[in-house]
């Protein structure tokens, strides 16, 4: 019988070894009856078996049953030790577990710990892979969207969220462009027809220069509400103190004026002239332009040229604020109107005498648009929960990043509100329609990062310039700056020219791929020419990088010398190209 139980206990020990490799089994008299392979590496089996535990270790079993202890071997290795009692057929056994502390750096354990952390944090996390399948959905996200991770992990995003088109998936957008989408407030999930709004940002996951997926972090709205109120309160206090006069515009809430606007194209020059005229009028103004085209830059410049430029410029991004909070932020609150509400002026009151800039107005929910329209018509505002009305006395500049006619047709922008906010209209064309500005702004950003990073870059390589001119710049100037920043980080201190190879791989694929496909589509060039062109470009870039040393270049490209020489001949690469690239 005893033998059977011993075999059984030994089997349990072996099974447990999968999880904790260091196991010692003791009988009731605390004599060691079995040890795992890992313990055999520390002590000789002869010395250990049948010996009493207290002869070998500095702790009593009673202590280890009660709490875990760190044990240091004579060689300096540390183990975490704990004990558990097992009673079987009235026999008592004690299992002592020894966990290598450094094991915590093992991938398996690290992964386990990360999973624990992800499931216990307050922020919602959802992650998808390259195909758009959901691979992670934590508990907090379940709470926010009232969906179950069990049901949706493994599904495509568009299946899980019932999107009408794959393009509606922001994760896929981020995966394809590599550009994060930040501070969104939107509902993707619906419970019994009720939208589950979440406040979130989506980021790409980059590994070895390639994007392999995307993830979003969603915030808890209640917490966010109090944070936002605090931020607004802080801003107000800062503004009222007018801390510094060093920056010429600091005390009115702006940083840009027309002199900061860069661009050599006729379009931008005309636009500045148009905007300068509009600055002298006091009508409400609508600025239309894709994301990152400089709508806020123009709005601030217009304010600073206007006669009320000493008064505040107050900006709010309508897409970033939860719907029920937007109303209190714009119109203000009266103490007690909801839990935690204080007597607080809204932004309309804050902007008195100056300008209120409503960015991404097209994201404002329709119900809120109705309230805004009423305020603009009556030119009076009433704080949430209050009875008293206050006259409003500010210029309203709004910005939208979509075609107004289209969103009116789709019912996302009230037509009457559009007429109210768009007495004057300024349209900023996308960067791809003003190629001259791509280069002038590019040079401006080179200068900016030369200063910041202590580098002395002078220009773009001809290849890079060509690619930049034919890329379609969906993120406009913001994206251009992001790309130049990436180039400038990677270019070496002694280099004078930015080249394609200075870009991370995922950006290269994004901009080169599109360039090539664009040319093929326009039938300007055949696929084989494109491939030849890319091959030539990569080889010449690498030759330049390696100062035309054939051995170094072939190593760099991962091909043998002979193959490199053959390809150079085939592609007509001669060393004179050193000067032209
Ligand atoms: N003409 C310009 N000259 C200099 N910098 C510019 C110009 N246009 C845009 N920028 C820069 O590009 C970035 C984006 O500008 P801005 O925030 O004004 O764009 P936006 O159109 O308001 O974007 P969004 O619609 O996403 O709010 C800023 O860093 C700004 O400094």
UniProtKB/TrEMBL annotation:
It holds the Pfam family AAA_lid_14. SUPFAM superfamilies: Homeodomain-like, P-loop containing nucleoside triphosphate hydrolases, PYP-like sensor domain (PAS domain). Residues 261-489 form the Sigma-54 factor interaction domain. Keywords: ATP-binding, Nucleotide-binding, Transcription, Transcription regulation. It comes from the Bacteria. GO terms for biological process: regulation of DNA-templated transcription. InterPro entries: AAA+_ATPase (IPR003593), AAA_lid_NorR (IPR058031), Homeodomain-like_sf (IPR009057), HTH_Fis (IPR002197), P-loop_NTPase (IPR027417), PAS (IPR000014), PAS-like_dom_sf (IPR035965), PAS_4 (IPR013656). GO terms for molecular function: ATP binding; sequence-specific DNA binding. PROSITE patterns: PAS, SIGMA54_INTERACT_1, SIGMA54_INTERACT_3, SIGMA54_INTERACT_4. Residues 114-155 form the PAS domain. NCBIfam families: sensory_box (TIGR00229). This is PAS domain-containing protein. The lineage of its organism: Bacteria, Bacillati, Bacillota, Clostridia, Eubacteriales.
